[in-house]
Write a structure and sequence with these properties.
Blueprint lengths: L20 H9 L10 H13 L6 H14 L12 H12 L4 H8 L3 H4 L4 H8 L1 H10 L4 H4 L3 H15 L2 H15 L6 H21 L3 H15 L1 H15 L4 H15 L4 E7 L2 H11 L8 E7 L2 H14 L8 E2 L12 E6 L5 E8 H9 L28 H11 L4 H13 L3 E6 L4 E5 L4 H9 L6 E6 L2 E3 L10 E6 L11 H4 L3 H14 L22 E4 L6 E6 L2 E9 L11 E5 L5 E5 L3 H8 L6 E4 L10 E10 L4 H11 L3 E7 L6 E10 L5 H9 L4 E6 L10
Parallel strand pairs: 2-5, 6-10, 11-16, 13-15
Antiparallel strand pairs: 1-2, 3-4, 4-5, 6-7, 8-9, 8-10, 11-12, 12-13, 14-15, 17-19, 17-20, 18-19
Helix pairs in contact: 2-4, 3-5, 4-5, 4-11, 5-8, 7-8, 8-10, 8-11, 10-19, 11-12, 11-13, 12-13, 12-20, 13-14, 14-16, 19-23, 21-23
Length: 709
């Protein structure tokens, strides 16, 4: 949109047809052409659109362009081009992906309501309700009205609109792609801010909607801004191999010969990796070969042909069985379908092969955009209550829309949104009644309970997983059968421990709200004598001993009173963290790190903080502090050994470790560690981050062994 205007020379690899913005600007300023004839500036968009939709009605595009050009006339981008070049470029991006006419019409008008005098009522009168809805969905909220909450509230509004029509997010993704392509004239700090939001929110949304063509280019553009040194090194490596013989071309020729001999009609293409993909492969494998810079793509006509090609490749070449994945029989949650395998190519080098039909390829590249208009002329009756049945609304979007309704605070929403989108895998759990629940990978029975019953999950008391009794903390796997056990006691509710097992924002928000509402204040002790006059106390004082058992001393008017102290699993405080506490049911004091988001929520809900501090560590023994750390990394050989060595060198002992299976070349390690001195924790985390392939180390909020107070 208008905030991201720019320089056509920004770094990053370009995809698709490039636009000569100066020529486009001259065509836009030269007028709208004869009545009934397409203006010159939109003629190239019409040609691309007709290639995908030969029978498309172009008159509505002509009228939309005329309105957009006249309303934006006189406005210029920061790079000097007429502003109309931006909506034209966004529309061309969508046209190349095969978007239908209504989406293109809305993309031409997507900034008119935000930046000109055109109103939504005018858009409805001239182009209909669908176009009005799409334009409204991508229109940003005014910062003058919402202040610092404008950006998160804009995304909330956009996601709610996407829940009703996924084409809203298609336009937003194309809009952000063009703005990222032309970000060079912005100040470096603003480039970094926009790139971080793109990385944390829009790239995961593009992945979930299956729009790989937009996602991969956005990744490269973000990579260039946020990691310029790694980007330059990767780009130079790719360019250095550009003039050398490509071993994949020879392997592709051999594959074509095999398919001809088997009488299988197919197209074999050498598909180059984008820069971020090359970077990930380098981190995973260390040294790269020419075959690692691309993959073979085999396109066939029918699903059965995919498996026929797979059989021929595994018969005529040496396959790497560990690399085989079948996403046709079990598609990804973002509509992606393909067969993945790897064979020994020229010189014995591994060549990765993707096998799919032409339709699968269109969906793999364009995702929901390739589905056209999912709301046009349904053959079956719509869902009850007159709602449109939307086949493109996946489980993750439904979950997101559910929990955002319970999150009025924009900061909490923004944090929860990023956490939700950071989960890049899903599992499907089968309910006892035959239904299914879609959850992020790593979710527990607690998450499933709130996904199935909403606030009714407060009364859950247990579960059966695959027919066996299981604790609510049990992590669910893809294909598990789940039977939740509910209590008939209306007073039954969640315990604070549930927050340690909940991974989804919906569950954590519901549990936190219930705990805040049902917290019991401890009874005040009966004073033996009238108190001595003095200044009022703002809060009780709890001493959190650093080397003894979980007992604290609460200062009261009648003297010290023993109180149970528990470290919060959401932030796992250890000395010398700055801490604060809150009294929960039974008089227990839960201790949180001061920056923990739960602290703000507790204070906002009216809870009074309890003053706490760490008891002196004098006399403590070694190994008194336990903390759980989570290392996110790109998968490679010897990674576990290198991380363990770094931990040992930092003076920590491994109590337990868990390694999740690699996914998309990424792997997560979770370690519960014993430290002789809590002050060594920052250096330990820095040492783990220095291990090659590790890109983040953070304190885990779940599966934590509490440090003794």
């Amino acid at each position: 949109m208008s905030a991201e205007a720019t320089n056509t020379g920004a770094p990053g690899r370009r995809r698709g047809r490039r636009i000569d913005l100066r020529r486009l600007g001259r065509a836009a300023l030269s007028g709208s052409g004869a009545r009934g004839r397409l203006p010159d500036a939109i003629d190239h968009v019409a040609k691309v659109h007709r290639a995908h939709h030969p029978g498309a009605d172009l008159d509505i595009l002509r009228r939309a362009y005329i309105l957009a050009e006249s309303s934006h006339r006189g406005q210029m981008r920061k790079s000097g081009e007429p502003y109309i070049t931006h909506p034209l470029a966004v529309t061309l991006i969508l046209a190349e992906l095969g978007a239908e006419t209504t989406t293109l019409t809305a993309s031409l008008l997507h900034d008119t309501v935000e930046d000109t005098e055109v109103t939504l009522d005018q858009v409805r009168e001239q182009f209909g309700e669908e176009v009005r809805f799409l334009v409204d969905g991508v229109t940003k909220l005014e910062k003058v009205d919402y202040g610092n909450a404008a950006e998160p509230e804009t995304f909330r509004k956009m996601l709610v609109a996407t829940g009703n029509d996924v084409r809203v997010m298609s336009i937003k993704l194309a809009d952000r792609l063009h703005n990222m392509r032309t970000l060079g004239v912005m100040r470096p700090e603003k480039q970094a801010r926009i790139a971080k939001v793109t990385r944390d929110v829009l790239i995961p949304l593009a992945e979930r909607l299956g729009v790989q063509a937009l996602k991969t280019e956005l990744e490269d553009l973000v990579f260039a801004i946020l990691h310029p040194e790694e980007y330059t090194r990767t780009r130079d490596f790719v360019l250095a191999h550009a003039g050398r013989p490509d071993p994949l071309e020879a392997t592709a020729a051999s594959v074509r010969a095999v398919l001809r001999e088997a009488a299988i009609s197919g197209e074999v293409i050498v598909r180059r990796r984008h820069f971020v993909s090359v970077h990930r492969v380098r981190l995973k494998r260390g040294e790269l070969t020419g075959s690692d810079l691309g993959r073979l793509l085999v396109l066939v006509g029918e699903d059965a042909d995919c498996y026929a090609v797979l059989g021929e490749l595994h018969t005529c070449f040496t396959p790497f069985i560990s690399e085989f994945k079948d996403f046709i029989a079990v598609p990804k949650f973002n509509l992606y379908q393909s067969l993945h395998t790897a064979i020994a190519g020229e010189g014995g080098q591994a060549a990765e092969v993707l096998i799919r039909t032409h339709q699968m390829h269109r969906v793999a590249e364009a995702g929901v955009i390739a589905l056209g208009n999912p709301y046009a002329a349904p053959e079956a009756p719509d869902a009850a209550d007159g709602e449109r049945a939307d086949p493109t609304r996946p489980g993750w979007l439904s979950r997101l829309l559910e929990w955002q309704r319970a999150t009025p605070d924009p900061d909490t929403f923004w944090t929860s949104l990023r956490d939700e989108l950071a989960q890049d895998r899903e599992v499907t759990v089968f309910r006892a009644d035959g239904g299914t629940i879609g959850l992020p990978a790593g979710s527990s029975c607690v998450d499933a309970a709130y996904a199935q019953y909403g606030e009714g999950a407060h009364h859950c008391i247990g579960a059966r997983v695959n027919g066996r009794l299981a604790t609510l903390s049990t992590v669910l796997r893809d294909g598990d059968t789940l039977h939740l056990l509910m209590s008939a006691d209306a007073a039954c509710g969640p315990s604070p421990d549930w927050l340690e097992h909940a991974r989804t924002p919906a569950a954590r928000i519901a549990i936190g709200r219930w705990l805040a509402t049902h917290a019991q204040e401890p009874a005040a002790p009966t004073p033996p004598a009238p108190p001595v006059p003095g200044p009022p106390r703002a809060a009780s004082r709890v001493v959190a001993p650093a080397t003894q058992g979980p007992v604290a001393v609460v200062a009261g008017s009648g003297g010290p009173v023993a109180a149970s102290v528990r470290l919060a699993g959401c932030c796992t405080p250890v000395p010398p963290d700055e801490v604060t506490g809150f009294t929960v049911r039974g008089g227990t004091v839960t201790v949180h790190r001061a920056p923990c988001p739960v602290v703000d929520r507790m204070v906002t809900s009216g809870r009074k903080p309890v003053e706490v501090h760490w008891r002196s560590q004098d006399g403590g023994s070694a190994g008194d502090y336990r903390v759980t750390l989570r290392a996110e990394s790109f998968s490679r050989r010897h990674l576990l050994a290198d991380l363990t060595e770094a931990i040992a060198a930092a003076g920590a002992a491994v109590v337990s470790a868990a390694v999740e299976p690699p996914h998309e070349q990424r792997v997560r390690h979770t370690y519960t560690l014993q430290l002789p001195d809590a002050g060594r924790l920052p250096e330990l985390m820095r040492a783990m981050r220095r291990v090659p392939g590790v890109y983040d180390v953070a304190r885990a909020g779940r599966s934590v062994t509490p440090a003794p107070l």
